[in-house]
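Cross-check.
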Amino acid sequence: MVGLFSLVANLLMLAPTLYMLQVFDRVLASQSELTLVAISLLTLCLFAVMSFAEWMRSRLLVHTGVRLDKQLSTQVFNASFEANLSHSGNAAARSFSDLIQIRQFLTGNGIFAFFDAPWAPIYLAVLYFLHPWLGALGLLFSAVQLCLAWLSSRIGAEPSEVANKAATEANIFLQGKLRSAEVLESMGMVSNLRTRWLERHQKQLSLSGWAQRLTHHTSAWSKFIRYSQQSLALGAGALLVIDGELSPGAMIAANVLMSRALAPIDLLVGSWRQFTGMRLAFGRLEQLLIDYPPRGATYRQDNLSGDLSLRVVTATASGRAEPILAGLSLEVPAGTVMVIAGPSGSGKSTLARVLVGIWPQVSGQVLLDGVPIEKWDRVALGSQIGYLPQDIELFDGSIAENIARFGEAESQQIIAAAKQAGLHDMILRFPKGYDTQMGEAGNLLSGGQRQRIALARAVYAAPSVLVLDEPNANLDEVGETALYQTVAQLKAAGKSVFLISHRPGALALADRLLVLQDGRVQFEGPRDAVMAAMQAARSARTQPDSATRQAAVSAA
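Predicted model, tokenized:
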């Protein structure tokens, strides 16, 4: 439709040329006022139609941009989210900027150059009909402008891409450090990190200056060619008038027509950097959507029992030679409380992410109620899973909204979850109760309060499976007691609970115990049997030491 309206608009762009020819060659020669009025009214009508066509194509392009955004925004959001889970942070961070850049190009002047440029040969043909030399001159200037556009593409694309990439990296580096402003300020790290940021910033400035210098050089040459074309076209027309091969009216009309013929090409040269940026944004966005396509038909089940199986599960990470988890196989029936223990770096937190299906690089199978976790509908499954990560992340909003996972707030369920986490009385002491706004990332709350709110969020709406990663790391004695009471209630309700902890109180609640060492299962089974096996292994390690000491004493 935009092409159709462009056809009408560009055809009617010939109206001023025809009007000049008629005024100079017909009206001035005949001295007829009636002819002047008639052709003037006709030209005004044609201008009105041309303006309507211009307005309609602009309106259509705006609607196209909005429609594109509506069709892609959800898919881009989901793909960006999955890319972030896969630790492809840069791609996720710039995806919506890329979508905005594409939409803005669709509604900017640059896109009109692509619709108008195909009409340049028509204008050049009309010039040729006025006089072959004028057509040849217009063709020459068109070729020069096209060569300039091609040269701009060749030498300007790479610098622009490198500069944009450097700017994105510098911005991501800065934003990441601003999130830890308190730590940086308290330990005097601001100056050191500012030096590192300045290195990236200076590199980005240098690359941007390089790209801008190339763009300015191209624009300067384009301006020189445009001014030269206007003067030379007028001079060539004047020469043809002197030689009697062209009328004065045709001379002026040819000058206007040549400017019109070269205008789309000139606009194309001026918009080439914008087009190059849009093309790169399109490529990045296309690759993101290819890498993270919409999920197909997924499995849904309203009542998850909580049976969980791991079959030869191996979790890896980019840039790491050894797997984080290697060949784990478990069978955990519904209603089991399993405590997961092991030294730092043994893979406990990675296992927690694997259990809830958010670790990106996993081989083997994680089965929930016999169904692979990747085949579940994440929205349906998410409401039946409670997850408390080691790094607590609360979001700007009220306490009630955070507990309710920003869904439809059910007051009774929110209060029940808060009571289960031992949080209800504390919330009531806030001036606005459950409507208290927590501030950015919950920075108005203490670490223990944030952890208990996150626990309430995890147990909200009685999920069937709960994975709690070091839930008592920031809790005082009262908070830890409330946590153990919560786990005991979940156990009594038949929920499956995976609790990562080393505390004796947690071990007392366990039905089964899993001990990891270097990403492998060291011990696994009923709690008492595992603890007995661990004690036996510990005794076996200490007995040789005792024998050695006894031999040393005897020798002495």
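Residues 308-543 form a domain with the Rossmann fold fold (CATH 3.40.50.300). The beta strands are 308-315, 325-332, 337-341, 362-368, 371-372, 385-388, 465-469, 496-500, 512-517, 520-526. Passed to J.P. for a second look.
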